[in-house]
Structures are given as C-alpha cells and as structure tokens.
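[job 0412] stage=fold_complex status=start
inputs:
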Amino acid sequence: MPELLEIRQLSAGYGPLRVLHEIDLTVKAGERIGLVGLNGHGKTTLIRAITHMTGWQQGSVQLDGAEIGGARSLGAGRRTPGLVRRGIGVAPQGDAIFPGLSVRKHLECGAHTRAAWRERKTRIDRIFDIFPPLRELEHALVGKLSGGERRMVSIGRMLMTEARLYLVDEPSLGLAPKISQRVMEALWSLPVEGAMIIAEQNVALLTGRADRIVGMHAGRMRGDVGHVELG
Amino acid sequence: MDLGLVIYALNLAAIYALMAIGISILWSSVGIINMAHGATFAISGYAAWLATGAAKPLIEATFDSGLWTTVATASTLVGAALIAGAICGAIIYLLAFLPIHDKPNFPVRALIITLGLNIMTVQGLLWTFGPRNQGLPKVFGFGRWEIWGAKIRYDQAGTIIGAAIIMALTLAWLRYSRRGLEIRAMMQNGEGAAYSGISRQVTALPVLMLTGALAGMAAALLSQTIFFSPTAGVVPLLMGLTIALLGGLGSVPGAMIGAVLIGFLEAIVGAIPFLGQRYVMFATFAFIIAVLIVRPRGIGGLLDDTRE
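[job 0412] stage=fold_complex status=done
writing structure:
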C-alpha cells in the first residue's frame, strides 16, 4: 500500500536559482504535518513544487503511488489544475484571491468537481459554519475585505472540494495574532479526512496540534523535529 | 449637441466596444494581445458576404414577402459572421496558443504570431478577392426615421441595438454561467484559478471563440455602413487595441466607457468645422495618450475600488 505522498530527491527552483536540494518527505493518509523554517528556506517552494508551480523541478513526487513529479524545465502551472482535480487542495501564500468576485463566487470556484458543484450551496453553508464572519460578507467583493477575511476565503475555497492532500502556506502570515490564532484553530478542528501540510514560521501555533513537525533549512529537510526540542 | 451626432457617436462606440471588449478579455484571461483580431474581423466580413451571396437565390425562392426575406438575410449575415469569427478564434487557439503557451515569453511570441497571421490574412484576402470593395446586403434597409428633427438611419439604429444585445448576452454569460465564472476568475488571478482547478489550456478555447465571434459581430454590423475590403480590419483592430488600453486591459466596463468616449470624441472632432475628419485620428490618439499619462491603468483603474 503506497503512502499518500512520497517525495524522493526533489529539487526545484526558478531559472538559475536552486531553492530545494534533494528533498525527501513522506506523508501518511490523515496526517497533519507542520512544516517549519525561516523565511526563504524553501517552505513555499516545496508546496509550489508539489503542484508544479516552480520554474523548474526534478525528482519524484508520488500521490497514492502515481508519479506526479518528474523533470521539468518549463510550463510552470501547466499541470497545476490537473493536480488540483486529482485531489490536492491549496491555500497559497498571498491568498491568490479574485479581487472582483464576491465571497460566494470564490467559494463556487473552489467547487471544481462535478459532485462539489452540484452541492455547492450546502458546501458553502459548511464553510460559513467554519468561518462565521464570512456569512455576512457573502456578497461582498473579496478585494475589499481585510487580510484575515481574505485568508478565510482562500482557505474556504480550498475546502470546497474534498482533497486527499491539503497544502496550506503560511496561514498566519500578515495577520494579527488573535486572528491568526482563530484561523489556525479552524484549520486544526477541520473534520477533513485528507492529510494536511501547514507551512508556518510560528512554531508555537503548531506545537501540540500537528502530528509531526518537520523543519526546513536552506532548502534541505532538517529531519523530523520533536515537539520537546522546540518547546 | 444634436441628436444625429449622438447617434453617429454611439454607432462608432458600438463597433469599437465589440472589438475592444474582445481584446481586453483575451489579454487578461489568456495573455494574448491578439493582433489577428483585425484578420478575424475581415474574414468574418467576407464570410458574411459569401454566405449571403450563396443563400440569396434560396431565400428569394422560399419567401415571398419582403419582411421574411429581410429576416432570413439578416440571420444568414449575422450567423455567418459569428460562426466565421468563432472559427477564426479556434484557429488562433491552434496556431498562436496551444504550441507555445508554456514557453518562456509567451505573450511576446503570441503577439508576433498573431501579427503574422493578420498580415497573411490580409494578403490572402487580397489574393483571393482582389482589392475591390464588396457591398453586403443592407438588411436594415435604406430608410431613416425623423425624431425631433434629427435623421436616424436604419443601419445606425440597427448597429447600436445589435451591438447592445450581443454585449448584454456576453456579459450575462460571463456573469451567470459556470464557464463565465471560470473566465472571470482567470482574468483576475491566474494562480488562484489554477489552484481552483481551472485549466488555461481548456478555457482559452471558448475565450478565443467568444472574442472572435464578437469581432465577427462587429464586422456584420459595420458592413451595414461601409463597404468591405481586405484591409477593412485594420482600423477596427487599431481602435479596438487602443480603446482596450484606454479602458485598462482586463476591464470590460472600462473598455465600454472608453469606446463611448472615443466614439463621441470622433463624432465631435469630425463635426467641428476647422478640424474635420482629417484630425479625428490625431485627436483620438492625443486623448488616449493624455489619459494614459494621467492614469496608467486606464479608465478601469478608476472603476476598480478594491484594495491592492
């Protein structure tokens, strides 16, 4: 039985710049993994490499035993929609929102599979239960929302379709401590079955909640970091 | 300002808006500055000319009354132009999008390829049909109404109404259909669209066909006012591009407002005795340059009140 996600010898970067150096990482089904590391050490690039958003990449990435990696020097983003449809949900850094669409339309965009699109009403309701502040903003343009509300929209869009693997990039970035705590709280208490990788600088937001915390340093895995060490 | 001038301005605005909206949507969603939009325009005009010519005997044999003949001719004309425009869009998809969309510098490559397609098309049309002007059947007739002392020609009224209908349909489709939602998402944030499972490869085809059909509609409508020649697409392309820029590339309302502004500017400059038609292009471009110096994001930037 293959693991949910198996990354072997993954290197990636942009143009002449190599950001990731032979990364190995295995994710089991249902696991919640915290990915920690300083700014610029490759957390975001790892998430982008899994979804083919880096400039180039090489190395093996297997989702449920199917190869989704390989060597690639062009076509950033070309396979991304296909990978999303195969069950990778992403809440990217910077939220990648559509400023001129309403909250509801955003969430509808997230319902990309046929089944999700058919039950989009109930699913949107469920997102509103997870993030209650969004309910009143249903018809507001997302371009006018605050940073915290945008983050909720971005994560909500990711949750509209069940994924096997959720990639959440820096959910606390740029948010006031109280709001980032609320966002993290919502993430931890999600009743999702898929595995989740949360890239985060603030280790305190991960300790005690993540099943496993892995560290990144200078584009390499620092191995599993125990909770005790970090505490 | 007299009503005739207003109607003339709106007539120009209708044609320009159809061209500019297509260019604007295509650039912001797919990333092509479509220099072949003028070729699409010209081919659609010729397709409408050929189709109405071929269908004429059939239409005359089938219908006796004048009204039904007109309706059948009009449907043939508009249908042929729309279909030809959409087919041109599909060809541009095959030649200028699919082979190069994941290569570096895609926008520049696409610009060069579509420019090449445009030149080839004009030469091809010259080769096939010669430089002669072709008159398409005037489906709106030659009459005119008199309203408050102003004379409105049927073709002007028909153009304005036809363009308004097709633009309303396009906007409604973009607003309420699922495909339209995907296109709008792609226009606003390509990365967010990719993470929502929206594929640029798949969505580019309907976008190109839609914008091509809009150019075809512009050709069908303009053919009611002018004669058609192989170079008929040059001015609409030029005006469409500059108005799309003026409106702020990617902003559909911006392109519409830009088209109305330029339409009125053209009509007014043309009507001022000491300026006249000679100075229309000069005044238009001076205005567009002035606006872009003051507001580099164009009119769309004024409408857009979202946070960065």
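[job 0412] summary: Chain B touches chain A at residues 101-104, 178, 181-182, 184-185, 188-201, 304-307 (CB under 8 Å).
[job 0412] exit 0
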